[in-house]
Amino acid sequence: MRALMNPVIAQIKQSPVAVRTLPFFIFILLTAAQGWFGEGGRYWLYLLKSIVGGWLLWTFRRQISEMRWKVSVEAVVVGIAVFVVWIGLSPALRAMGIDPSWTVLKSKATPWNPFNYFGHAVLAWFFVSVRIAGSSVVVPPLEEVFYRSFVYRYILKRDFLRVPLGQFDWTPFLMTSILFAFTHIEWLAGLLCGFAYQSLVCWKKRLGDAITAHAITNFLLGGWVVYKNAWEFW
Question: How many domains does the chain have?
């Protein structure tokens, strides 16, 4: 199997587009498949997609030169601020009779809560840990590379590697953030989140701070979900 995969991986590594998009699309495909195997299958598939996504990012790490985590005061502040907006905005708007979410998708979605399926068991805590780890370690670099390294720059120029990461332009700024919002049920929070992370990239002229901010947001959100029993955020 490894002998068969090596030529394929080597070919993918030759494409700057492929190494930045394939991990994201495979992750999304596995996300879509989570409902195909029943309630229990969705938790195992989250584990699978986290492993596969992490492996792909690790495999292509040398080809994605901008994928380097950077810790800065700005990244920490943005990460915390986005978390506060994420948990506070939607409830506040709903209290005013406004639903800032994709209502159709939300009505069809079952809250991601392993305790409902496994009970308060070791396996439930295992999958909670998997979710927090996957969303904090795998998702941030995967999404930031796709949206803010590839999509943003590709909108500006097909030869996207010639576009500096910090170059600001309203068209890709808005389009990338809208696309990011579209992939989240809480679309308004996702839109503001996209604005914040993209602004951080343009401000710091690198991707690593946005990866760190994204990781902080997701880690805090995971802790909030468990602590407050707020499974609707997952």
Answer: 1
